[in-house]
Amino acid sequence: MIHDLSGSAVAAAFMATPFVPAPGGDTVARSNPGAWLIVRADTTGCSDSWHPWGRLQAWLESSSPAPAPASSRDTVRLRLHLLPDGQDDCVLVSETPLSSEKGREFSIDMDRETSPVMERGEPGRGVCRRWDAAMFVALAAAVDLSVKACRPFPRKPKKKTCSPSPDPLELDT
Question: pTM of this prediction?
Answer without folding.
Answer: 0.73
